Amino acid sequence: MQAVSINPPAENVFVDKIVFNHFMFQTIFDNLTPLEFLRLARTCRVARAVVQRFIEQTFTTKINQILSRFFTDPVAFRSLQACTGTLISGSVALQFFDRTFYPGSDLDLYIPPQSDRHVLQWFPQNGYRFAPTSAQPKDLEEAIDQGRVHGFPNDIFHEEEEDYWSMGTKYIKGVYTFIKPSLVENAPDLQVQCIVTENAPLDVVLSFHSTCVMNVISYEKAYCLYPRATLHDHHTVINDLPPSSSQPAALSKYKERGFTICNDIRCDEAVVDISFRLWNRSIGDSLCWSIPLDMEGVGPGYLLPGKHQPLSHDPVSISQWRLIPSTTHLRFYKETYTHPFLYFTYVISREAVMNDPRAACDRWWDYEPGYGDEHFINLYGKH
Fold first, then answer.
1. Is the domain of 90 the same as that of 201?
2. What is the pLDDT of residues 144-169, one digit of tens each?
3. Same domain, yes or no: 42 and 99
4. Domain for residue 218, yes or no?
5. How many whole angstroms separate alpha carbon 228 and alpha carbon 98?
6. Which of 139, 194, 251, 349 could be a cystine partner for 176, CB 3.0 to 4.6 Å?
């Protein structure tokens, strides 16, 4: 984001009386939704500069502060994200965008299966203790091996309020919980849940119970997929999934946090019309709120086998999906795409790949020897 200098004339009341009055500035902006302060940015050059500065201070550079609750070195954790393709989602991602705080909330991480051992071994080395379920071996290495061979049993935790339990364990290969004492006196232990996905992390996120938790944070950007409904209207639309026993508890949790639960597409037609247009969507499109994060000190991206240069962007950056209306609900339709010359699995349809004229003119799988993920990401991503 390009910095804009704010050197207004003395008679500029907006700047003199509001921008340079810290109390007034914070009071006003803390009570504006993102839609409102982004509208303010369109009014004039000075307002645009002020909003840019606010976004940088509140979001771009605050990610490390938010993660410091869980890690003494948040930049080291984000470097782990970079080299493994791990995404943050769940309550922490929502709190980041909504500028709220839910006491006792866990950190939920979504990990591609290629990176499971790399990520999971990092936590015991950084002050966390593995807390196995009754169905997991007590030894972490044995638990990882069990998850790789047998997957994750879907008959435990079925009453939990976690966002991912609302759709069962169809897209999940394993869940590993790590805990450590909080640095705050009398506060509950800190808990990190590592969800190893069957395919791509976003494949799980798009299968959550409703839209308010469809937000992800990679090492380089934060994405709110439905910002108007989630952050401005505080509506969440239920995903048209087979019912599960945990969905009511998960929805009740977010109702208590101030969200209006839309059970069908007619509950608020205006919100649905504006926020949930029935067309193809992609990460970073005009309906998505994408925030570049402060990258100072963050390590390089994923280094594919046989390559000398890491990936320039996170694999999530090319994800695509679309909404399909059923009788009363909205269904999030997505496909995963694999190819012998791709190391990762991507949330993008085969049709989108094969019918793209760029692919016809430039066959990414012939671009370079070995895995072609770098060229694939640059071809289909929005960066």
1. yes
2. 999 999 887 655 544 455 665 555 56
3. no
4. yes
5. 11
6. 194
Beta bridge partners of 282: 320
Tokens describing residue 165: 């339990």
Total number of domains constituting the chain: 3
**pLDDT given at position 186:** 80
Listed residue (313, 371, 289) closest to 37, CA to CA: 289
Residues 47 and 147 in one domain: no
Residue with tokens 């290495």: 141
**Domain range enclosing 37:** 13-60
> Is 233 within the bounds of a domain?
yes
With respect to residue 7, please indicate whether it lies within any of the assigned structural domains.
no
**Which of 60, 79, 99 is the C-terminal boundary of a domain?**
60
Examine residue 297 and state whether it is found in any structural domain, yes or no.
no
- Cβ–Cβ < 8 Å for 254, 213: yes
> Among residues 95, 110, 318, 331, which one has the least CA distance to residue 199?
110
One domain, residues 124 and 31 = no
What is the tens place of the pLDDT at every residue in 337-372?
998 889 999 999 888 887 765 554 455 555 556 788
- Find residue 321's DSSP bridge partners: 281
Look at the block and give the residue holding tokens 């694939």: 376
Q: What distance in Å separates the CA atoms of residue 186 and residue 93, rounded to the nearest whole number?
A: 25
